[in-house]
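Board work, copied verbatim: Corrinoid adenosyltransferase
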Amino acid sequence: MKLYTKTGDKGQTSIIGGRVEKDDIRVEAYGTIDEANSFIGQAMTLLKDEQFSDIYQELVKIQHELFDCGGDLAVVKEKYPYKTTIQMVEYLEERIDHYVKEAPELEKFILPGGSGASAVLHIARTVVRRAERCTVTLQKEVEINQNVLIYLNRLSDYLFAIARVINYRLGVRDIEYERSALVFKTKPSKE
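↓ predict structure ↓
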C-alpha cells in the first residue's frame, strides 16, 4: 500500500461523498478532532500504571469515538449513517460525574498543568474546544450530526475532570489561578 496518492497535490482532498479544498472548514473541523486525538494518544503513553487503567481504557474508547466524530463531519451527502450517538454523550456525562466526586472540590479556576499526563490532557481539552468552535462554524454552512457538537462539548469537560483526577491520584496539587474569584459553587455542608 502506498501512503501517498498525489490526488491532493492541487489543494483538494476527498471526503465522504465528494471533494473539497483542504482549507475548507469541514476539513479544519475534523482535522482539529484528529489533532486532539493525537494529544490524547500522547497522554495515554504516560498512563500505563495500574492506578490509571480505568482512565486508559476510557481514553481508548474515546479515541475510537473521535474517529466516529471526524467521519460524521466528513460526510457530504447523507448516504452514510452517522456514528456519533447521544448514548456516547451520556457515557461521558456519567464518567464526568464519577470523576468530579473523586477529585478535591473545585472553587476557583486552575492553571493547566501538574503532572505530565495532566498537562497533555489540558492541551487535548483546549484542542477539543477549538474543534467545537470549528464545528459551530461548519454547522452554519451545512447540516451536521448535532451529536458531534454535543460530544465535543462534553469531551472537553471530561478531559478537564480526568486531568484533575490524575493529579489527585499522583498527589500533585492543582494550582489555582491566583486572581480567580470563587467561580464554582461549593457543596452545601451536611451539618
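The longest strand covers residues 12-15.
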